[in-house]
Amino acid sequence: MRTDPLAYLGKEIDNLKEQKLFRALRILEDEQKARTTVDHKSVVNLSSNNYLGLTTHPRLREAALKAIDEYGVGTGSVRTIAGTMDIHMELEQRLADFKNVEKVVVFQSGFAANAGTVSAILTKEDVVISDELNHASIIDGCRLSRATIKVFPHKDVDAARKIVKELPASQRKLLITDGVFSMDGDLGALPALCDLAEETGCIMMVDDAHASGVFGKNGRGTVDHFQMHGRVDIQVGTLSKAIGALGGYVAGNRNLIEFLYHRARPFLFSTSHPPSVAATCIAALDVLIEEPEIIDRLWDNTRFFKAGLQALGFNTGMSESPITPVIVGDGARAMTLSDRLFAEGVFAQGIAFPTVARDKARVRTIVTATHTRDDLQFALDTFKKVGGELGIIH
Ligand SMILES: Cc1ncc(COP(=O)(O)O)c(C=O)c1O
Question: ∠256-260-261 over CA atoms, to 5°?
């Protein structure tokens, strides 16, 4: 009889269970929205990246349905063969206008945009200088490129400068940061990194996954927020989070985008977005431009909720965005906090190693524009009750 060659994975799972880090997937039985049903329970949802509530916005739904009527449900091909529809080109043009850049390429996800871009533009002769908390998709892109990877401590631009200065001036270098860090909610050191890139001739790249639709005028991202226009060579954004649908894009100059059309592997080797997704994203851009009050509501809710958590005595780290971590240290403790909150009607996911450092486990909260004050007050009251019970606050 054949022995199971994957038995070692069972041992890994047992380890996770022993450490109380094994998680069953939570199942959403309703729409992705501020108050919803998860695992048969009505909850205030503090776990999604649906910052602006666009997953259920009537204009986006209507655009998706119309596109299905006009184009059907799929493209049946990768972009470079037969999978580029006029609606994909329209989305790229709309994004280029919105970001005020020469050109944009859309990928199937933000992950594909980061990994596909970094791996395409660098070779093993090159160097990446990367913030230690950059997203996994950047790390994977760096690994795939086979470039040398140099990591600098989080937001430590002096350390980044030291690394760059020790490298041969002639070597190609990519300086890369998240715009907003997804687990801590703080902003990358973009202005100082732009200075460094200019001083030393590095390519400057920012991953604005959590800034798209959230920071900058009408949600144009951190380049707009910090007024770094023209100083960042490669901007990545997602269409999966605040934009409410799915996808990622790269904004930059014509050479960059045309090169990615020819060399980025997810673009070449993976089927393009269904036309309904492209149509949804175009409608989302209309909403960002015509209904910017949604973004104001997001920020009002963010200020209210963050101040509430801090007043209760929770450690919310360095957050400057709608992502507010409640840092508790130990992984098992974070999972217990998350489970107890859930039992009381608040869905906020526990996050532990390897997603964050072993001693920085947390429950991560994300408010949206569509939470009501009652939702947020209920969540704060629940945090107070459960945090007190577990001895996290006194
Ligand atoms: C910082 C960051 N970059 C990129 C991504 C990937 O985006 P997407 O979900 O569109 O693949 C994420 C999402 O988890 C993220 O948090």
Answer: 120
Residue 238 CB–ligand 1 contact under 6 Å:
yes
Q: Is the pLDDT of residue 21 over 90?
A: no
What Rg, from alpha-carbon coordinates, does the chain have? 22
Residues 216 and 224: beta-carbon distance below 8 Å: yes
Atom of ligand 1 nearest to the CA of 134: 1
Is the C-beta atom of 240 inside 6 A of ligand 1?
A: yes
- Element containing residue 97 per DSSP (H, E): helix 86-99
Q: List, in order, residues 6 or more apart from 149 with CB less than 8 Å away.
A: 127, 128, 130, 139, 142, 143
pLDDT of amino acid 23:
85
Catalytic residue ranges = 182, 210, 241
Tell me the CA end-to-end span of the chain in Å, nearest whole number: 58
Using the mean position of ligand 1's atoms as its centre, give its distance from the Cα of residue 2 in Å.
40
- What's the pTM value of the predicted model, to 2 decimals? 0.97
Q: Whose CA is nearest to atom 16 of ligand 1?
A: 182
Q: Is the pLDDT of residue 234 over 90?
A: yes
What is the C-alpha to C-alpha distance for residues 157 and 187, in angstroms, rounded to an integer?
13
Q: What are 136-163's pLDDT values in tens digits?
A: 999 999 999 999 999 999 999 999 999 9
For residues 211 and 228, what is the distance between their CA atoms, to the nearest angstrom? 14
